[in-house]
Amino acid sequence: MSRIQQIIVGWGIVIGAIGIASLAFPSISEKAADQREHAYWQERAEAFQAVDDNDAYTSSFLQNLAELHTDPALRNSGMRDSRALSDLETISRKDILVAKHKSREHQCLSEAIYYEARSERISGQTAVAEVILNRVKSKHYPNSVCGVVYQGAERRTGCQFTFTCDGSTALTPKGLHWERSQDIASLAITGGNRKITQRATHYHTLSVDPHWSSSLQETKVIGSHKFYRFKWRERPVVSNVSIAPPSP
Question: CA triplet 114, 117, 123: central angle to 5 degrees?
């Protein structure tokens, strides 16, 4: 190979190397930028989780969070869009507490359906949920789902729903029965199911005949439960805790 050919080949190799580098460097640079950005947001996420719950919804915190999203060092325009956070500044602490309360109410109703009637058909489970919500509306019972379900649970003989004081809750809700109980609770709380118990506030299984049943008006038999409501124009007789409890 002549001297000229060697020079040509040498320059060809150099030019080729420069071309490959020009293609590789942007990719390497972009990957490094992505890694830095990931680390940045990982740090922000950890900082967010470390914030005390009582301070997480203050306007100053939200303002700081919004400023992080407008950092010009970030390449992703979506992360710089402060408008995505502007509505968070309108959330009040009261709204957050209401949301938590509703979540607890749904949990309590789901648990009652699961422990009291998980082996029932949908109609039987819906009926149990309806009794609980009817009690919430009644002046003779607590005005919340959790209050109704767990009324008297702190006493050995005072619970209104057997599962709250007989150790049943040691069995963690799970599986398809739990999923269906949650679905039925959602429908009941939002008024998505039709009323089927005729305003019943009590029930018991068909295998028992409690002493209090004669003082109430029978309304329905659904599945393995018999349902009752207060008799018209008759003030209910209240025991040391409440009206005689339903059986599971």
Answer: 115
